[in-house]
Write a structure and sequence with these properties.
The complex is a heterodimer of chains A (357) and B (314). Chain A is mainly α and 357 residues long. Chain A has 14 helices and two strands; from the N terminus they run βααααααααααααααβ. In chain A, strands 1-2 form a two-stranded antiparallel sheet. In chain B, α2 runs parallel beside α7, α3 packs across α11 and α7 packs across α8. Chain B is globular and about 60 Å long. The N and C termini of chain B lie far apart (62 Å). Chains A and B meet through α6, α11 and α13 of A and α5, α11 and α13 of B.
C-alpha cells in the first residue's frame, strides 16, 4: 500500500516558479473544456482558434502586444500592492482616473506640441496615484478594509466618468457618451520598426524593468517586502508601515493610471465608458500567476492578452460565447492559488514501515 | 424642507425602503454568518450574480418563481462549498479565493446566459413576484402597507435576520460557530468540528446570497441583466463591518443604505436637482465609504477571521 502525504517544505525550488503557472493554466484549460463541449463546439478546434488567432499574422501579433500593454501595467500595480499586503482591487478605477487625466491634457491647445504626450503620461500616473492614495489613507488612518474601499471606489469612479461623459465633458461632435478627442499631436507616436505598436507598449516594458529594480535592488523594495511578510516585525525594525503602504499605493495607482493613459494616447484617443474590459481585475490574475514577480508579469500579461483577443475570433468561428475568457481567468486564478500549496508542501510517498500512522 | 419630510413619510417611499433593502439583507446576513465562523467570503458579488442568472433561468423554463429561488439557493450553496474547499480544506488565502470565486461566478453567469438565451434584441423576462399582503396586518394604517404588504421574500429576509440573531446567541450551534470564529483551537479542544462548522456556515450563507441575487432578477426586476447586482455584494461586506458583526445592526445598515438609494431615486425623478443621474447612483457608494470610515476604527472583527485552521499544526 502506497501512502501519499503532504510534508512541509523548507525552501521553494526556483523551477516551481515556472512550472506552477503553466500547470495552473493547463488545469484551467482542462476544466474549461467541459464548458466548450457544452456549447457544442469541438474542444481542440475552439482552443486552436483561441490561441492561434492572436499570433497568426504580424498584425494580430502587434494587436496582442497592444492589448498586453495595459495588462502588464495593471499586473505590476497589483503585484507591488499585494507584496505589501495592500489589497488594491481598485486597478480598474485607477486606470480610468489615469485615462481621464491623460485625456484632459491631451485636449489642451495651450500646451506646446512637444509637451502634449509627456503631460498626458504624467497626468495619467498622477491621477491613478491620487485615486489609489484615497483607500490607502482610509486604511491607515481609519482602518477601513482596503478590499471593500478600493472596490467601492471603482464603482464611484465609473459612475463619475459616466456622469462626466453624459454631461459637462461630452464630446459635442459625437452621438455617444465619449470625451472630446485628444489633439492629433497628442496621439502617442508609433514605435520605429513597427506598424502599430505605440509608446504605451514601450512604457509597459520599461515599467517591468523599473518595478523589478525597485523591488529587488532598493531599500524601499526591501521595506515593501518586510511589511508584507510581517508588519509587526517590520515595525520593530523601525519601518513605518503607514508610510510604506501609502508609498506602495501611490506607485501601484500610478502604474494602473499609466495603463489608462496608454489606452487614451495610443488606442482610443478619448475616454468612453467601456474603455477597459476589466483590465484592472485581470491584473489580479496576472500578478498571482507571476507570483508577484515583475518579470513574471510580462509573460502572464501576454497570455491573457491572447485569451482576450483570441476569444473574439473563437466566438465568431465556433459559436462558443466570448465570456469563456472570463471563466478561464477565474478558474486559472483558483488553480494557481491551489498550486501554490506546492511551494509550502511537497507530496511524499511514505514508506509504510517508516510512516507513523 | 417640508417637501423632503412629506416624501420621507409617504407610504410608497417607506415600502420601497424594504424592497430595496431585501437583497442586501440576504447578502449581509450570509456574509455575517461566514465571517462569524472565521471565513471572509469575498465571493458574494459573483455568487449573487450567478444565482440571479440560474434563478432566472430556472423560473423562466419551469414557469415557477419558487423553483427559481430554489435553484438560486442551490447555486449559492454550491459556491459556498467551493469556497469551503479552497479556504477550509486547502487553507488558501481567503482574500484571493474570494476574488477568484467572484471572477469565476461572473464569468459563468455571462457564459451560460449567452449559451442559454443567445443574444436576443429583447431580453427574455418572467412575470415577477407580486406583493403578498398579510391578512389583517396589512390593513393597519401606515404600518400595514409599509411592513405587511411586501414580497414574501422580504418577510423571509427579516425572518432570516431574526433566526440568525437567535441562533448565534441562544443555540449550541451558534455558540460553536462563534467559538470557531474567535478561537478555533479552543473549539477543537471542546470537541467541535471546526471544518464542518465552517462548511455549514459557508453553504448556508451561499444559499442566502443566492436568494438575494435571485430576488433582483425575479422580484425587483423581471429579467437577468449583466449589471443586475452592480456592487450590492461588495456593499454587503461593508454592511457587516458597519453592523459590527451583529445581525440586527447589519440589517439596520441595509435599511440605511436603502434609504439613501430610495432617496437618490426620488431626487432623480423629482427634477429638483439637475445633475446627470449617475451622480445620484454614486451617492450610496460614497456614503457607504464614509460610514465605513466612521465605524471601522472601533470595529472588532472575529479574532480568527482570515486565519486558516489546521488541526495537526500547533
Amino acid at each position: 500500500m502506497i501512502h501519499l502525504r503532504l510534508e512541509r517544505r523548507g525552501t521553494t525550488p526556483a523551477w516551481l516558479n515556472l512550472v506552477l503557472p503553466v500547470f495552473a493554466i493547463l488545469a484551467a484549460l482542462a476544466l474549461c473544456s467541459g464548458l466548450v463541449a457544452l456549447a457544442g463546439a469541438d474542444v481542440v478546434d475552439a482552443y486552436a482558434q483561441l490561441f492561434l488567432t492572436p499570433f497568426s499574422t504580424g498584425f494580430d501579433l502587434e494587436q496582442t502586444a497592444i492589448k498586453a500593454a495595459p495588462l502588464v501595467l495593471t499586473g505590476l500595480a497589483v503585484a507591488i500592492a499585494f507584496r505589501a499586503r495592500f489589497w488594491n482591487i481598485g486597478g480598474e478605477g485607477q486606470l480610468y482616473a489615469g485615462a481621464m487625466g491623460a485625456a484632459f491634457f491631451g485636449t489642451q491647445t495651450w500646451l506646446p506640441v512637444g509637451l502634449l504626450w509627456p503631460a498626458m503620461i504624467l497626468a495619467g500616473a498622477l491621477a491613478g496615484a491620487a485615486w489609489a492614495l484615497l483607500p490607502a489613507v482610509l486604511r491607515t488612518r481609519f482602518k477601513v478594509d482596503d478590499v471593500v474601499a478600493t472596490l467601492l471606489l471603482n464603482f464611484i469612479l465609473l459612475y463619475g466618468v459616466s456622469a462626466l461623459l453624459n454631461g459637462p465633458w461630452k464630446n459635442p461632435q459625437s452621438a455617444y457618451p465619449t470625451s472630446p478627442e485628444i489633439l492629433p499631436d497628442a496621439q502617442f507616436p508609433v514605435l520605429p520598426g513597427t506598424e502599430q505598436l505605440h509608446l504605451g507598449v514601450a512604457i509597459a516594458l520599461v515599467a517591468v524593468a523599473v518595478v523589478w529594480f525597485i523591488l529587488n535592488r532598493t531599500t524601499f523594495g526591501f521595506t515593501v517586502k518586510a511589511v508584507g511578510e510581517n508588519a509587526r516585525a517590520a515595525a520593530y525594525a523601525g519601518i513605518s508601515t503607514v508610510r510604506t503602504i501609502l508609498a506602495t499605493a501611490l506607485l501601484s495607482g500610478a502604474l494602473a493610471g499609466l495603463a489608462g493613459a496608454g489606452e487614451v494616447g495610443g488606442v482610443h484617443y478619448q475616454v468612453m465608458a467601456d474603455l477597459s474590459p476589466g483590465y484592472g481585475y485581470t491584473g489580479i490574475v496576472i500578478a498571482m500567476l507571476a507570483r508577484l514577480n515583475p518579470l513574471g508579469v510580462l509573460p502572464a500579461a501576454i497570455f491573457y492578452a491572447a485569451v482576450i483577443t483570441g476569444a473574439e475570433g473563437m466566438s465568431r468561428a465556433t459559436g462558443v460565447p466570448v465570456f469563456l475568457a472570463d471563466v478561464i481567468q477565474g478558474v486559472s486564478l483558483l488553480c494557481m492559488l491551489t498550486a501554490l500549496l506546492f511551494t509550502q508542501y511537497r507530496l511524499r510517498v511514505a514508506q509504510p514501515h517508516h510512516a507513523p500512522s | 424642507m417640508t417637501g423632503l419630510w412629506d416624501l420621507l413619510l409617504q407610504v410608497g417611499f417607506l415600502a420601497a425602503l424594504i424592497r430595496i433593502a431585501t437583497p442586501l439583507i440576504f447578502a449581509t446576513i450570509g456574509e455575517l454568518l461566514t465571517e462569524r465562523a472565521g471565513v471572509l467570503n469575498l465571493g458574494v458579488e459573483g455568487i449573487m450574480l450567478l444565482s440571479a442568472m440560474t434563478g432566472f433561468s430556472a423560473a423562466y423554463f419551469s414557469g415557477d418563481l419558487w423553483i427559481g429561488i430554489a435553484a438560486a439557493a442551490t447555486t449559492g450553496a454550491a459556491m459556498g462549498l467551493l469556497m469551503g474547499l479552497l479556504t477550509v480544506t486547502l487553507g488558501l488565502s481567503q482574500h484571493v479565493s474570494g476574488l477568484g470565486v467572484t471572477m469565476l461566478c461572473s464569468g459563468l453567469a455571462f457564459y451560460f446566459y449567452r449559451l442559454i438565451f443567445g443574444e436576443p434584441s429583447q431580453p427574455p423576462s418572467v412575470t415577477p413576484f407580486k406583493a403578498a399582503p398579510i391578512p389583517f396586518l396589512s390593513d393597519i394604517p401606515l404600518l400595514g402597507p409599509v411592513l405587511f404588504n411586501q414580497y414574501a421574500l422580504s418577510y423571509i429576509a427579516f425572518a432570516a435576520v431574526l433566526a440568525a440573531a437567535l441562533a448565534l446567541k441562544h443555540t449550541p450551534w451558534g455558540l460553536s460557530l462563534r467559538t470557531v470564529g474567535e478561537n478555533p483551537r479552543a473549539a477543537d479542544a471542546a470537541g467541535v468540528n471546526v471544518a464542518a462548522l465552517r462548511y455549514q456556515a459557508l453553504m448556508l450563507s451561499g444559499a442566502l446570497m443566492g436568494i438575494g441575487g435571485a430576488y433582483l432578477s425575479l422580484a425587483q426586476y423581471n429579467a437577468f441583466t449583466f449589471g443586475v447586482i452592480s456592487g450590492r455584494g461588495w456593499v454587503a461586506i461593508a454592511l457587516v463591518v458597519f453592523g459590527q458583526w451583529q445581525p440586527w445592526r447589519s440589517a439596520l445598515g441595509a435599511l440605511l443604505f436603502a434609504l439613501i438609494d430610495a432617496l437618490q431615486l426620488r431626487l432623480q425623478a423629482s427634477g429638483w436637482i439637475h445633475l446627470p443621474y449617475q451622480v445620484f447612483l454614486m451617492l450610496p457608494f460614497v456614503l457607504t465609504i464614509l460610514a465605513m470610515a466612521l465605524v471601522s476604527r472601533n470595529a472588532r472583527a472575529p479574532a480568527a477571521l482570515l486565519v486558516p485552521f489546521r488541526k495537526e499544526e500547533r
